[in-house]
């Protein structure tokens, strides 16, 4: 190999290293941008959650109390009280889902347990929720895991027609692992992912350098697994 060939090879290697560095820098910038966008979305959700709780929620609370007084004298209006109580419960649940203050108050373990309970208590779905993680995780990571779980469980309720759901979250060797498994309809991943909202899971996973794997087959359920570096 002559000197000219050696210099050419070295030049190509330098260009490859430069291109790799540029790609890594751009990927890091995109991830940072995505995180900032989601942080802004979470802030907007928190604001709307407070408005629902302090505005509509307070109005419904007052209405419910008035109807309780009315119903004690006029039992035939009990159905109005029931409707008011249902509306108030829905507003409170929506407010919590939009801005899960339970994350700050009780931690990720309790928040995920509450999420499973609130998602499935009105459904004919048996579920298992096994969580064992450190409660000192970064707040952004807590929200990320909560939102991933929320999106996946919402998809199950809306689309899977499942009878059994399992959620496992654990931490080993500086990594978190989340598994969500259902025995529902399943789908062809390549053809259906965008149609049922799982694209948002993939986008969020990329921003947090998480490895997301979606396995599903028609009539054989779905298994979503994600490994997240802490």
Description:
With 230 residues, the chain is an alpha+beta fold. It has 2 domains: 1-99; 106-230, Heat Shock Protein 90 (2-Layer Sandwich), CATH 3.30.565. Helix content is 63%, strand content 17%. The chain has helices at residues 3-73, 78-98, 102-106, 108-120, 139-160, 189-192, 199-207, and strands spanning 126-132, 164-172, 175-182, 211-216, 222-229. It has a 5-stranded mixed beta sheet with strand order 1-2-3-5-4, with helices on one face. Helix 1 (3-73) runs antiparallel to helix 2, helix 4 runs parallel beside helix 5 (139-160) and helix 5 packs antiparallel against helix 7. The model has no long low-confidence stretch (mean pLDDT 82).
Helix residue percentage: 55-70%
**Averaged pLDDT, please?**
82
How much of the sequence is in beta strands? 15-25%
Principal-axis shape equals elongated
Structural class: alpha+beta
Element order, helices and strands?
A: HHHHEHEEHHEE
Number of domains: 2
C-alpha-based Rg, rounded: 24 Å
Report the sheet with the most strands, covering strand number, pairing sense and barrel closure: 5 strands, mixed
Outline the low-pLDDT stretches.
none
What's the arrangement of strands in the largest beta sheet?
1-2-3-5-4
CATH topology term of the largest domain? Heat Shock Protein 90
CATH architecture of the largest domain: 2-Layer Sandwich
Could you name the CATH class of the largest domain? Answer: Alpha Beta
Q: How many β-strand runs?
A: 5
CATH level-4 homologous superfamily of the largest domain:
Histidine kinase-like ATPase, C-terminal domain
Q: How many alpha or pi helices? A: 7
């Amino acid at each position: 190999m002559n000197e000219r060939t050696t210099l050419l090879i070295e030049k190509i290697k330098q260009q490859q290293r430069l291109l790799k560095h540029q790609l890594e820098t751009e990927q890091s910038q995109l991830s940072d941008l995505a995180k900032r966008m989601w942080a802004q979305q979470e802030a907007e959700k928190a604001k709307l959650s407070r408005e629902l709780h302090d505005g509509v929620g307070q109005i419904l609370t007052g209405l419910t109390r008035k109807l309780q007084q009315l119903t004690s004298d006029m039992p035939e209006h009990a159905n109005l009280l029931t409707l008011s109580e249902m509306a108030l419960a829905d507003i409170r649940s929506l407010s919590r889902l939009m801005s899960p203050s339970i994350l700050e108050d009780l931690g990720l373990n309790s928040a995920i347990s509450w999420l499973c309970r609130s998602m499935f208590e009105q459904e004919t779905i048996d579920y298992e929720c096994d969580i064992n993680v450190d409660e000192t995780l970064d707040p952004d990571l807590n929200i990320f895991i909560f939102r991933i779980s929320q999106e996946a469980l919402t998809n199950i309720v809306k689309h899977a027609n499942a009878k059994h759901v399992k959620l496992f979250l654990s931490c080993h060797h500086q990594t978190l692992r989340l598994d969500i498994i259902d025995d529902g309809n399943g789908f062809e991943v390549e053809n259906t992912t965008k149609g049922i909202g799982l694209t948002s899971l993939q986008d969020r996973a990329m921003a947090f350098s998480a490895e997301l794997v979606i396995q599903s087959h028609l009539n054989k359920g779905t298994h979503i697994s994600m490994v997240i570096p802490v």
